[in-house]
Design a protein that fits this description.
Elements (H helix, E strand, L loop, with lengths): L4 E3 L6 E3 L4 E3 L2 E3 L2 H31 L8 H17 L18 E5 L16 E5 H6 L4 H12 L1 H8 L7 H4 L3 H17 L4
Antiparallel strand pairs: 1-2, 3-4, 5-6
Helix pairs in contact: 2-7, 4-5
């Protein structure tokens, strides 16, 4: 390579200045390479556009509910935040069983977490429970309620229990972006708080 040679944008080889064609899109050694480079660039642009359209189509197909749905992603992020940051190390809310390496604690719901229940993602509805209370004994609803009354008062518990007091999930998250934003919020909080 010398000052008297220039590189072809298509084949990447060096040619004498006099053999190079200079165009707004670059320098080329021949018109054939101008055409080939243009076709390759057009194909790459089309492939990129096709990938973007395919990704957008997949996002449209992905559902709010069900396995792999947007609500499932939100639940995972929220439960991780509650278990590992917000209520880290707390004993089981309903029996007092302490958390240890060998006993797996869950995030339990005061109001059972039905697929589209409006309280499903409310922090007020979530506490730490041991596997036995949450899974085997279906959340120990009576004990959970009594503890909530002691902690928050009967008015708060009755407000939480009444579904009519809460906006539907569609009102809380009117579009997919709002669910993704909420998911990102809990992931960010988990990273920020206590080095989670």
């Amino acid at each position: 390579m010398t000052n008297s040679t220039l590189k072809c944008k298509h084949c990447k080889k060096y040619f004498p200045r006099g053999q190079i064609i200079t165009l707004p899109g670059g320098r080329f050694c021949s018109m054939d390479h101008v055409i080939l480079h243009g076709k390759a660039k057009a194909q790459a642009t089309k492939a990129k556009r096709d990938r973007a359209q395919h990704k957008a189509a997949k996002q449209q197909v992905k559902k709010r509910t069900g396995k792999g749905g947007y609500y499932e992603n939100l639940k995972t992020a929220l439960h991780y935040y509650v278990k590992h940051c917000l209520r880290k190390g707390e004993p089981c809310y309903t029996c007092g069983n302490p958390q240890t390496q060998s006993n797996c604690h869950h995030v339990g719901h005061f109001v059972p977490a039905k697929e589209v229940d409006p309280r499903r993602f409310m922090l007020e509805n979530l506490r730490i429970q041991c596997y036995s209370c949450n899974s085997i004994h279906s959340g120990r609803r009576m004990e959970y309620r009594q503890r909530m009354i002691e902690e928050k008062g009967i008015d708060h518990v009755e407000w939480l229990e009444c579904e009519a007091n809460h906006k539907s999930l569609l009102e809380q998250y009117p579009d997919i972006e709002s669910i993704k934003k909420e998911t990102a919020k809990y992931r960010r909080l988990a990273r920020l708080e206590n080095g989670c």
